[in-house]
Design a protein that fits this description.
With 791 residues, the protein is α+β, with helices and mostly antiparallel strands. It contains 15 helices and 43 strands. It is globular and about 110 Å long.
Length: 791
Amino acid sequence: MPKYFVCILLLIVAATCVAQPKLEKLTVEKIMRDPKWMGTSPTNVQWTPDGQLFFNWNPDKAPADSLYMITTINKKPVKATILQQQNMVAANNIVYNLGRTAYVYAKHGDIFYVDIKTGTTRRIVTTTDIETNQQFSFNDTKVVYRRNLNLFAWDIATGETIQLSNLQTGKAPKEINDSSLSKQEQWLKNDQLTNFEVLKTRKEKKDSTDSYNKGIKPKELRNIFIDDKIVQGLSISPDGRFIGYRLTKASESKRVIVPAFVTESGFTTDIAGRTKVGEVQGISALYIFDRERDTVFLIKADSTLAGIKDLPGYLKDYPKQLEEKAKKAAMRNVYFTGPHWSPKGSNAVLEIFSEDNKDRWLVLWNTTTHQLKLLDRQHDDAWIGSPGIFNFGVNSWIDEHTCWYQSEVSGYSHLYTINVITGAKKILDSGKYEIQQAQLSNNKKYFYIISNEVHPGEKQFYRMSVADGSKERITTLTGNNQVTISPDEKNIAILYSYSNQPWELFLQENKSGAKATQITNKAQSDEFKSYTWRDPELVTITARDGANVYGRLFKPTAGSASTKPAVIFVHGAGYLQNAHKWWSSYFREYMFHNLLADNGYHVLDIDYRGSAGYGRDWRTGIYRFMGGKDLDDNVDAAAYLVKNFGVDAKRVGVYGGSYGGFITLMAMFTTPGVFAAGAALRPVTDWANYNHGYTSNILNEPFTDSIAYHKSSPYYYADGLKGSLLICHGMVDVNVHFQDAVKLSQRLIELGKDNWEMAAYPMEDHGFTEPSSWTDEYKRIFKLFETELKK
């Protein structure tokens, strides 16, 4: 063979060897493999006080992410050295004094103090204990921190450390004195002292000595015994006078045991799970210790608190229960958070939540009279929720008398200010959109907010005036802009993504009109980019009650199927948004929808009733009936596809995981003829099995609102199964327990149903981690749809 032919052949072979692999055709195996094949997105973005930006990243396809860094001058990412990693202090871990001339932070379990003017750093403590909750107090002259159960103060000028509180476990010892004696014991004692002179003399001498010692003894810290309770929220007022803390007694309710069958030892291992909805919850109480008066105050809500005796509206469906509760006229159980102190400590605001989560009160605690004054009440017949509602206390004071908070009282979560002295309230913005994040600027003149004002499926960053609510938009990229502000507020780091573009890091000046500079570019590998990923069309569907339902539509490749099949995807979590303009947390499902579209399916993914991002009425549209309006929206979405795209009404499938699995079951059991096939992944089958925090908000409790649980649990409707059903569930799921799938299986067996099957995954929790499990699950889903929707 001529030499030049050999050379050409070698060049071809070499080129073939180094060429990037092509994703010529999507398959389940390719989609569900280790997600690193897609590329790598930066995560955990953190500024340091000196303006460096650190983030986790893995552009080299290493086994794990590494820490990278840039500066505002040198914007090329470099891997942080071991020394830089050890010395890195995240700005979100530091606490400034009022003048922002110094800050403190916790690292390696110890507390550090930094003087910004001199640039010096001092390690306040070096102990084997873990010190936390660092803050400035005593008018910024001391640094206070928590060690174990108590607070300690380090004097900045002298370096002296003093203990501020003396909380101790166990019960307070019983004080023995005459008042604790019985009548018989008191008579015997008096008789002894009357008839024995030596006893009488010794007692008088002891009493005199005790009185003298008490007079000269230095004042001791008050002993505060907490029994067997847990100390939470331990903090001190800025003037150093008051210490606030909560004592919580954990619930002793029965917990579910989750067995792990495949273990290293070869023996079954029991995993301690959670309690179920309706079980007795932990008891919490708020205390404030006045160091000046050496007095502990138990903070209680009384009957004067507006609405504290109100009975929930759902009781109208239970006349006997309503009558009994109305007669008692008892106050509802509540719990407190706080105190949240004004900058100088003259005012303290507390949050009070009703145990049924239908009320949130903001109250002012008077430091002189110790009385509570109502500032704001937010009530919801369903439950209190939405963005920012539970973030009060995080830099919530604008000045000594004015604080800010978020409320959904207008129907959407917006910003409010209130003067705690006069009670004057002001709303800073309004409209049919949500303020999803809010942060007060260093100078207290602006809010930095993220909202979906432009579109429900888009997040943009703004600067809003505290004075009048006027705002200017800072970010411009269409999609989701997750912003982290530099400590000096001159720059912002943006994690940005679009519908078909995974997250990348950008850097921008923190001002309107500034251009964002892309820092990373490895979120998509060459193999991943070799396929043209769809930019799903955002559509609006008119539901049967006239509401607008947003969805993402994946259209099939032309001519890829003559049978006109379609699939409805139901996102999980209930309160989550997925019909949006950014890279979905359901990235595997997004890629699977591209595969389905390649194979001739229309795929529609909607934000049904109960989803996040659309205000109060949408959020609570599932109250007392999960599987009601939320299911109706998905059924209406199927009808939308039939009407507008010629989809065959007899060839529509549905699938989803967790809450999406629950809706899939309700669809297959209660809407016969709408869905020919459904795949319910890790589904809730009986809401009485789920946790308290989530479920009691929406359905109340099984023994108080059995109607809601019966209407909402697929378990009761299994007899309605008509189409083909696939159930997939991890056996070590500590969120939605495998017990749910087992109970439903037994129910289907007893009903004689034969058009269903179940796949169990012995080593998987709620969110699968093994590519082999993901692959097996989605191969089954694809087979189900190919078999049932194309036959």
